[in-house]
């Protein structure tokens, strides 16, 4: 029993140290002092428990005194939709459905320039209508930045008129926030679902932020496509009504998509690649969810669209990097979406109607 208690105390202490280091609720100096007291009390507690010291009651009391305010602070952290957000996440997506028509409010269609970060953008939020009967494709997009196992995941829905709408589960950063991968474990960021033109959300990553893009056509029935889109819209409406924290492990850009997909296709297996997002296409290939019959190396080679994105014209982001007052192009997004899909397996061979195949 003493070993179990010591192990639990050690885990709780490690969690507390990381939480205080990342969040620093009372400033860096005070947090460091509290971290020292927490570690000291935990060491005393573990030592007295393991060696059955007569000081074990005092050790337990000191540890409780250190942990209680830590847990009390943690319980005060509440997500909010009312903060000073960066422009790209300043509005929340919402939708209304009337029959087979869905109306989306706050679809993002920014023009980016300069670094493609923070305020280097011309804001444009749109209200759009989509006919669910004209939804004809679903694509998985990955954006990576030099680490093979880590990528940002987006899902794009294609319609018969040539439009594509990309959905992305993102942290909702405030002004002054620095991105921290650890912060996603400790309630540092709210989460949001962004629906945006590919000419915005995809192009800014490849053309200005220097990321690498890959695209894969996903095999889904028409009913499953609509259900996945509806799942995104329902989740966006829920986040509008009730804010939630982003969590790097349980509520990130991949796990939420998996949870939505599992509602549509029961039996989808769990896999480490749901966390190692750079390998997510390998998971989809294993369960037979990618269009075509290629090996993974071919899928990745044909799906890599970074150079096609940078060569696509009209290149609005390139113009704006020199002149932010440049007029917006009437609709550069369709040519961009077409260019990045050139040569991707399944895009032009009519294989969209194939149902998702599960492993036996």
TrEMBL record:
<feature type="domain" description="Lnb N-terminal periplasmic">
    <location>
        <begin position="123"/>
        <end position="276"/>
    </location>
</feature>
<feature type="compositionally biased region" description="Basic and acidic residues">
    <location>
        <begin position="313"/>
        <end position="329"/>
    </location>
</feature>
<keyword id="KW-1133">Transmembrane helix</keyword>
<keyword id="KW-0812">Transmembrane</keyword>
<feature type="transmembrane region" description="Helical">
    <location>
        <begin position="29"/>
        <end position="50"/>
    </location>
</feature>
<keyword id="KW-0472">Membrane</keyword>
<protein>
    <recommendedName>
        <fullName>Lnb N-terminal periplasmic domain-containing protein</fullName>
    </recommendedName>
</protein>
<feature type="transmembrane region" description="Helical">
    <location>
        <begin position="57"/>
        <end position="74"/>
    </location>
</feature>
<feature type="region of interest" description="Disordered">
    <location>
        <begin position="313"/>
        <end position="360"/>
    </location>
</feature>
<dbReference type="InterPro" id="IPR025178">
    <property type="entry name" value="Lnb_N"/>
</dbReference>
<dbReference type="Pfam" id="PF13387">
    <property type="entry name" value="Lnb_N"/>
</dbReference>
């Amino acid at each position: 029993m003493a070993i179990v208690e010591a192990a639990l105390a050690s885990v709780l202490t490690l969690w507390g140290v990381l939480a205080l280091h990342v969040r620093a609720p009372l400033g860096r100096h005070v947090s460091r002092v509290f971290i020292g007291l927490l570690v000291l009390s935990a060491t005393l507690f573990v030592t007295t428990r393991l060696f059955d010291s007569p000081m074990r009651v005092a050790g337990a009391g000191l540890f409780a005194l250190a942990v209680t305010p830590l847990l009390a602070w943690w319980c005060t952290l509440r997500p909010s939709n009312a903060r000073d957000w960066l422009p790209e996440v300043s509005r929340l997506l919402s939708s209304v459905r009337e029959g087979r028509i869905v109306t989306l409010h706050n679809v993002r269609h920014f023009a980016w320039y300069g670094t493609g970060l923070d305020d280097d953008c011309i804001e444009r939020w749109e209200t759009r209508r989509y006919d669910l009967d004209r939804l004809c494709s679903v694509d998985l997009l990955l954006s990576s930045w030099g680490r093979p196992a880590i990528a940002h995941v987006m899902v794009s829905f294609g319609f018969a008129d040539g439009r594509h709408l990309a959905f992305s589960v993102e942290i909702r950063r405030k002004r002054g926030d620095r991105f921290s991968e650890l912060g996603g474990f400790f309630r540092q960021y709210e989460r949001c679902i962004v629906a945006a033109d590919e000419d915005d959300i995809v192009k800014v990553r490849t053309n200005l932020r220097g990321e690498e893009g890959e695209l894969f056509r996903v095999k889904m029935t028409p009913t499953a496509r609509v259900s996945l889109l509806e799942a995104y819209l329902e989740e966006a409406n829920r986040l509008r009504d009730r804010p939630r924290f982003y969590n790097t492990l349980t509520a990130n850009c991949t796990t939420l998509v998996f949870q939505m997909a599992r509602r549509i296709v029961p039996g989808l297996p769990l896999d480490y690649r749901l966390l190692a997002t750079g390998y997510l296409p390998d998971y989809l290939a294993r369960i037979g969810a990618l269009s075509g019959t290629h090996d993974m190396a071919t899928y990745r080679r044909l799906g890599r669209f970074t150079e096609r994105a940078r060569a696509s014209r009209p290149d609005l982001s390139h113009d704006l990097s020199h002149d932010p007052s440049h007029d917006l192009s009437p609709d550069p997004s369709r040519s961009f979406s077409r260019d990045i899909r050139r040569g991707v397996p399944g895009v032009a061979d009519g294989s969209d109607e194939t149902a998702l195949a599960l492993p036996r």
